[in-house]
Write a structure and sequence with these properties.
Layout (H helix, E strand, L loop, with lengths): L13 E4 L5 E6 L5 E3 L14 E3 L5 E2 L16
Antiparallel strand pairs: 1-2, 1-4, 2-3, 4-5
């Protein structure tokens, strides 16, 4: 399954926060489901409606991610 990408920098790793401002490393699959990167981690208590990109300053909802199928035209 493909992971969705950041609309700004196109990496596929994000983090989510809980009420204590603790963070958890996640990816988002093609069905817009937030999935922990480390299999033993639990999403319980984390806000899955707001993602924070690890590669840039972008933050937003899982629905606003790119599916990676887009290709960018290079300018020469």
């Amino acid at each position: 399954m493909r992971n969705l990408k950041c609309p700004q920098c196109e990496i596929h790793r994000f983090y989510v926060k809980n009420e204590k401002a603790e963070t958890l490393l996640v990816t988002v699959d093609e069905r817009y489901e937030v999935v922990p990167v480390h299999p033993g981690d639990s999403l319980d208590g984390f806000d899955l409606t707001m993602l924070y990109c690890l590669g840039c300053s972008w933050k937003g909802s899982p629905k606003s991610l790119r599916n990676g199928a887009h290709s960018h035209k290079k300018k020469y």
